[in-house]
Amino acid sequence: MIATTCQHKRKTSKGRDRKGQQRWTCKDCGVCFTNYDPKPLGEMQVNLDKAKLALRMLTEGMSLRATSRTTGIDRNTICKLLVLFGHACQRFLDDRMHGLKLTHLQFDEQHTTVLKKQARLTVTEKAERHDIGEMYIWTCIDQQTKLTPSFLVGKRSADNARRFMMDVAKRLARPAPHTSDAKRPSECSRPTTTIAGRRDTRTRAVRLVRSARARL
Against a cut of 0.70, is the pTM above it? Predict the structure, then answer.
């Protein structure tokens, strides 16, 4: 059994269980318990070293199928590994990325397609499904440190732009100059977003430049 109430520190070994885990017996109360090793991959049975190798290959630019052939890991297992690793990265960002003193942030988004192209979606799918079709990875990177304090995966909408900007704002210790590619969702979010509690007038630079070009 696993002892959840015994807090005594005097223990002696008592063999191993059927899974090979070390069993212990408390010398004070006689309770038998097992200290299970932590599982960084959860319920996945893939070897940890192979999982690290697969993630390293993917981050270096190898395709999913090429990584599967090289490591011998099934393609579906690699997809589950990517999801697990992505959630772990999100938790790391939420725990550590606060009070950042960054100098200059560059905002951009990367385009991809999930399941089918946007033109192939039906009217019902466009109204109800927000996880297929054209998807964007919203990113920002610091000019000096190359740090990416936050990211967001979703549609290219004004709502996602505001959510992403507010998430970045709460991670900064002070307002920081930032630029973007001046696409409409990002543009409409910045003038209504305060950075670290104060409005940053430099966020209007892109809109003013576009207005000046329109007058020429």
Answer: no
